[in-house]
Amino acid sequence: MPSSAALPSGVSMDALLQQLRTLSWGAADILRAYARAEQPPHGFPKALSVDDGGEGPVSAADLAVNQWLLDGLKGAFPNAGWTLLSEETAKEQLTEGQPLPAEWLWILDPLDGTKDFLQGTGEYAVHLALVKGKRPVLGVVLLPEADELWIGLVGESAWCEDRQGQRSPVRFSERHDLSDLILVASRSHRDNRLEQLIAALQLGGSKAVGSVGCKVATILRGETDLYVSLSGRSAPKDWDMAAPEAVLLAAGGRFTHADQAELLYNTGDVRQAGCLIASHGKAHAALTDRATRAMAEIDPGFAV
Hints:
This protein is α+β, with helices and mostly antiparallel strands. The chain is about 35% helix and about 20% strand. The chain has helices spanning about 15-35, 55-75, 90-95, 115-120, 190-200, 210-220, 240-250, 285-300; strands spanning about 85, 105-110, 125-130, 135-145, 150-155, 155-160, 165-170, 180-185, 205-210, 225-230, 255, 275-280. The strands form two sheets. The protein has a seven-stranded mixed sheet with strand order 1-2-3-4-5-6-7, with helices on both faces. Strands 9-8-10-12-11 form a five-stranded mixed sheet, sandwiched between helices. The relative contact order is 0.13. Mean pLDDT is about 95; it is low at about 1-5.
């Protein structure tokens, strides 16, 4: 186990991991209740029915998990030297162009994969990432419907836990030739440029999955080998990428821009724009090289 030196003064890794487990499985119970229109636990309001408006249950679920996570971290570590940022609080906390004045920053996404949550695919996730100096040091990706809790300590290790605390290791595939690699792609965020890029990469196949957390989990299980995010009119945000990146890095994978530049967080711009590639790492240099050359033809001048 890593030493507590990797955390703010006064916070032990054992205590933090135990609290993250409690918060994660509590969040899973809340989201699963809302997804099934059942009474959520922990005193949160009852889920609205679809008849009451399609967006209602998602708003209630987002807000409930957001409160659960923020209250839990504040209550467990009232004197920790970190700042909490959530997708739900970002509008109030952030000023465009100005990073938050925090050496240590939690970046939380209470519900990643809203469309999939609404559609009942089960491919939604909860993200918790601890960032220090613009780079993640710890990540948690919870998949409520799969009962999977992925934890990554960057520079140390990554693993998956079930509700009983049983651990299973990361199982990257052995595929390393580009022509054999399997891409995990988005169902909803696809445009013509992405289709052209995927064709140019000349991969072995693809699989469509919702939520960035769920996508990266398929890489960690060995079902797929890479994920590509190509921003268009909108771009993913810090809370979409930080936790999945942390777990993937901790497992020995890679998550970079197509020019191999690192993803940076809390920069004053929460958008993670460009051509981003996550992979098991075995062919990352070849992937990024081919993607960079392809994007120069597909969209000249695009900042990868």
